[in-house]
Amino acid sequence: MKTRADKVKAQPAPFLEKVAGFMPVARGSLALVRKACGKPGCRACKSGRKHPAWLFVYREGGKQKSRHVPAQCAPLMKLAIENGRKLEQAICAEGLAYLDSLVAEAAR
Ligand SMILES: [Zn+2]
Asked: Which of 12, 24, 47, 69 is in the most buried spot, having the most CB atoms within 10 Å?
């Protein structure tokens, strides 16, 4: 016999199908910064221009962290971050749809 809780469980397959395309996935942001290279006599560093560098900025355990991203990897990290935002939006929509189903079930 099915309980009320069984009946109102979310249907996992449609959601998983919806989010299956959101790979690769990452949560965070990309930042373009300028860093010193540390080479003695570097004109770019001496002038203050320094060198462009990409950072992946993310949170872990409530703390903001960052990791260097090689320039050639930045476009793919950007795509993964966009997928992460789409996944978060899909989770939010799924939660609201689930709440709607719970409320509808409770009203019966
Ligand atoms: Zn330099």
From this structure: 69
Tokens of 52: 């462009």
Q: Which residue has the tokens 């109102």?
A: 8
Paired tokens of 36 = 């010193």
Q: Judge contact between 101 and 10, C-beta under 8 A.
A: yes
The full set of domain ranges for the chain reads 10-107
Three-state secondary structure call for residue 81: helix
Please state the pTM of the whole predicted model. 0.78
Query: Cα-flanking dihedrals φ and ψ of residue 27, to 5°?
Result: -120, 120
Distance CA 55, CA 78 (A): 11
Q: State the distance from the centre of ligand 1 to the C-alpha of 83, rounded, in angstroms.
A: 34
Distance CA 44, CA 68 (A): 20
User: Is residue 11's pLDDT more than 80?
Assistant: no
